[in-house]
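Let us practice reading a record.
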Amino acid sequence: MFTGIIEEIGYVKRINQQSRSAQIEIKADKVLGDVAVGDSIAVNGVCLTVVAFDSQHFTADVMPETVSKTNLRELKPGSPVNLERALKLGGRLGGHIVQGHVDAVGTIVEKQILEIAIIYRIATEPELLQYVVPKGSVAIDGISLTVVDVFQDSFTVSLIPHTAHETVLGEKKPGDRVNLESDIIGRYVKHLMNRNHGEERQALNLSFLAEHGFI
């Protein structure tokens, strides 16, 4: 589990593409401080397992489903990537709960700079948008961000200067693709509301959330 607070930007040193899978080696610094084989590191929001490391790099295998459903397949040597180690028990949850399981790949369709803020509008599939709500959380390339508005085929988020500078998202432009993960709490609530097929749909309110242990 991760928090969506990026620790550093790493750089792809090597990527070996197979017919469907891949192995990636990434140059890093902070995330190598206490790394061990078998540890999880989120790379652009994708949970990968460390299979080897040295003082400056770590290596991870990328499974076929991950290659096909994320933007990792677009990486090449020199590409910058967001990196975050898995949350430790007792650590601060500065963002929101991020699993590292990408739901969809979205496309940046608009980028606006409004004084110090950068506003991105991201188009994605309807299946993911049903879990995206204004003022809710979404992970974009592993970054925990707050949703501003939701539209029929897209949503917007706003970046503060620190996030733009300390992550790869600040350099993204219209046409670039980003990994998206919806809020797991929203997915669980949706599942609870729909699990009894044919029953009258329950209202999503404070009583419902309390009854099912969310508050």
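A brief commentary: The helical segments are 64-69, 126-129, 161-166, 184-194, 206-211.
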